[in-house]
Design a protein that fits this description.
This protein is of the alpha+beta class. It folds into 3 domains: 147 residues, no CATH class; 137 residues, no CATH class; 68 residues, Arc Repressor Mutant, subunit A. 48% of the residues lie in helices and 7% in strands. It has a 4-stranded mixed beta sheet, covered by helices on one side. Helix 9 crosses helix 12, helix 13 packs antiparallel against helix 14 and helix 14 packs across helix 16. It is extended, with a radius of gyration of 34 Å.
Length: 473
């Protein structure tokens, strides 16, 4: 086969480095944007943080010498505190976290009469316990890990003996391998001095599966007790903690989610005021010193000396990179504000009251058509972004919902149907919870054309279990 050359015309789409940088910045929330800007300042010597001059009104007023002399003569001992000496040094205050659950357990093990081998094995078991207090690994695998890491040959039976010691520690139920064992460990540390507690222990020991699946009528018949006795036993079980590790509040990890909103929306006197939250986001600029450096390197005839050529190329590339970054930050600001203003105009009734039933059906394409941006751009804007309103901090993604049609042809948001579904379940008889089919019929009677599988989907999105698991005695 002969080798031949030929020309081929093709159309390809490629993103420039600036476009890629803009896309990445667009996805970042406010907290990560602050870190990204500081990282860019560290990597690019040309970029610097812009310092804002203090407002004139915040500047201290100048006092003339004559005005100062007219002040009352105040003794020096009244104008300062004398409860320190010159040798005193200001010492920093260090903020430290409390002990973790594992440290608390190891401290308790220190009071036990254990050999050095048992102490090391028990310490390894404690280190394998999760933050919620469970040991979710089988003892055979733990024994293999101990042989590799500590070089100690052990068996599952020996670890079982040491795990029983851990089960006696506080908080009650720690080191359990499943929910049943966790609840029984807590029950065993309580005195069985009432009929309700003895019945609760019997349910957890012999009828745990029926209890979890809420087969209450079957349990009452099998135990041959009254509903009142069964209700008291269930109340005792509900006093137990399914996650004993959470009872130790001093622990090291902080799981409280702190949300910093990306947009600030103020509503006063019937008017909205939208702004971008840039409180901790530093403003950057190109350092003029490097621009002057380039001018000094260029000779009057426009040529550059050979010794300065490499330095000039380096500084010029850094300045171009800095300009690209500043331009991407500004473009991000404009895109975010443009998109959020469009969402605000689209959902004005909701932002006035905060009532989710006022939410209009809205998808990404609706906002993309109004802004003239691509759907993927709108998706990046609303992803992981929050807006602070007068009724709370709202995730932008939660404002988007699919449209549902009523029997009269009117389009309503899926949030309206979810709220109605939640209301129907809240008002149901807990002894006879409503099934998904009954809920579907109730919604259809009110004019919402919805299928049973859609009811099940919305119920799961609301975090509501099936009817059998909602049953109460």
């Amino acid at each position: 086969m002969a080798i031949a050359q030929k020309q081929l015309l093709s159309l390809q789409q490629k993103l420039s480095p600036q476009q890629i940088q803009m896309i990445k910045l667009l996805e970042l929330p406010t907290v990560q944007l602050e870190q990204r800007i500081k990282q860019e300042i560290e990597e690019n010597i040309v970029l610097e943080e812009e310092e804002h001059a203090a407002d004139e009104e915040n500047q201290p007023q100048e006092i003339s010498v004559e005005e100062y002399l007219r002040e009352d003569d105040t003794p020096s001992y009244k104008s300062r505190l004398n409860n320190f000496s010159r040798d005193d040094k200001q010492r920093p205050v260090y903020l430290t976290e409390g002990r973790s659950l594992q440290e608390y357990l190891l401290e308790q093990l220190g009071y036990r009469d254990l050999t050095e081998r048992d102490r090391r094995l028990a310490g390894y078991l404690v280190g394998s316990i999760d933050e919620d207090g469970y040991l979710r690994r089988d003892l055979e695998s733990v024994a293999d890990d101990i042989a590799f890491t500590l070089g100690i040959e052990t068996t599952a039976d020996e670890l079982e003996r040491l795990l029983a010691v851990i089960h006696e520690l506080e908080p009650a139920g720690v080191g359990a391998r499943n929910l049943q064992e966790c609840l029984l460990l807590q029950m065993n540390q309580q005195p069985l001095n009432t009929r309700a507690r003895r019945l609760a222990r019997r349910i957890l020991t012999s009828h745990f599966d029926e209890f979890v699946k809420k087969h209450y009528e079957r349990l009452i018949a099998r135990l041959q007790i009254t509903e009142e006795d069964f209700r008291e036993a269930i109340a005792e079980i509900r006093r137990l903690s399914p996650k004993p590790g959470n009872l130790y509040a001093e622990g090291g990890t902080n799981t409280t989610p702190y949300i910093i909103p990306d947009f600030l929306l103020d509503y006063q006197d019937g008017r909205f005021q939208l702004s971008l939250n840039s409180y901790n986001v530093p403003e950057v600029r190109v350092n003029r010193r490097y621009v002057e450096m380039i001018r000094d390197m260029v000779q009057p005839d426009g040529k550059v000396r050979e010794a300065d050529r490499e330095a000039l190329q380096f500084v010029k590339s850094k300045i171009d990179s800095a300009k690209w970054f500043i331009s991407a930050i500004k473009q991000r600001h404009d895109t975010l504000m443009r998109t959020m203003q469009t969402i605000l105009d689209y959902q004005q009734e909701y932002f006035r009251t905060g009532d989710q039933s006022k939410l209009r059906p809205m998808i990404l394409k609706d906002i993309a058509d109004r802004t003239g941006l691509d759907v993927s751009t709108i998706s990046r804007v609303v992803n992981s972004k929050y807006v602070q309103t007068q009724f709370g901090i709202i995730l932008l993604k939660s404002l988007f919902s699919e449209a549902m049609q009523t029997s009269s042809g009117e389009e309503v948001s899926s949030y309206e149907i979810k709220n109605l579904l939640q209301k129907c379940i809240d008002e149901e008889d807990k002894r006879r919870p409503l099934t998904d089919e009954i809920l579907m019929n109730m919604l259809n009677d009110r004019g919402y054309c919805i299928a049973r599988r859609t009811v099940a989907k919305y119920r799961e999105m609301l975090g509501i279990p099936v009817a059998r698991l909602r049953k109460q005695i």
